[in-house]
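Hi W., the manganese (II) ion complex you wanted:
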Amino acid sequence: MPTTRVPPILTVQQHILQEQKRFPGASGEFSWLLSGITLATKLIQAKVRRAGLSDILGDQGAVNVQGEVQQKLDVFANEVLAQCLSVRESVGVLASEENENPILVHGGSEKANYAVVFDPLDGSSNIDVNVSVGTTFSILRRPEGASLDDHERWVLQPGTKQIAAGYVVYGSSTILVYSVGDGVHGFTLDPAVGAYILSHPNMKMPAQGKYYSVNEAYRDSFPPRYAAYIDQLRNGGLGHPYASRYIGSMVADFHRTLLKGGVFLYPPTTDNPAGKLRLLYEANPVAFLAEQAGGLATDGERRVLDIPPDSIHQRTPLVVGSRTEMEAFEACR
Ligand code: AHG
Ligand code: MN
Ligand code: MN
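Structure:
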């Protein structure tokens, strides 16, 4: 009688431990660090899922007696990530979109080897209208010779130095996508058991897609090259006319681009001449994942991962996507 083969169920924690075996001499500290991120994002998704109810069901004590207003979700997400990561002794520095300066944690410990940089809630303007939001993160190693309290140096490293990066989308399901530089893997949260389960092993971006993704309302203020490129996508110059999709949460727009191919752009505009997105915790993680999945990412002139950062919240234009669309962008000058 033929036996039914049941595919093994792999949680993200098991997967990280397997990946870690590839790095000789790795202790458990790196998987312990990543487990801080997975725990935090589970707590954030639980809050996001109840977002519309919090005013109705919110804790009376928190709102009235202590006089505190309901925390905005991006502040909540920031605090949860900081709390979950700061109990990991391997973390020396945290830098977040929500904090002007990096936060020093375990700075005095020789065991503090990593900096974690994150956007706790990306696309937060979409929260009130039930549209997907997410969290992005990037992990860097303490640079050789950097003192324990020189936290700027820990963080101001080009994207090529990322040892891991990823994101979580709080969408119609919650999915964690990450890479340690050995392919891209996606894990869907099973809400019944509270575990991220491997659902998208070894993700590859299709060589060409059907969609371009950009806020076209700003088109008149893009540099001419961008408008010419969008025209080429629309008029069938790449083999077929493209359709457009734009969510307004980079993490969700990128997730679609990773799965379906195509291109996501946030060009320079009159209001944001250097682009709007932040290099360290928005562009770098998605550029790292895109390259790992066979795609490319540029700021228009340079590979995103090669940009040497000079400030923590610096912005960059971003064009990221499939090989065919990216090569066409390169040729469009
Ligand atoms: P955040 O919510 O972290 O501030 O990021 C919002 C960003 C990004 O997610 C998105 O791609 C972009 O803002 C949308 O900007 P526009 O409304 O200008 O298109
Ligand atoms: Mn963001
Ligand atoms: Mn944000």
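The longest strand covers residues 114-122.

W.
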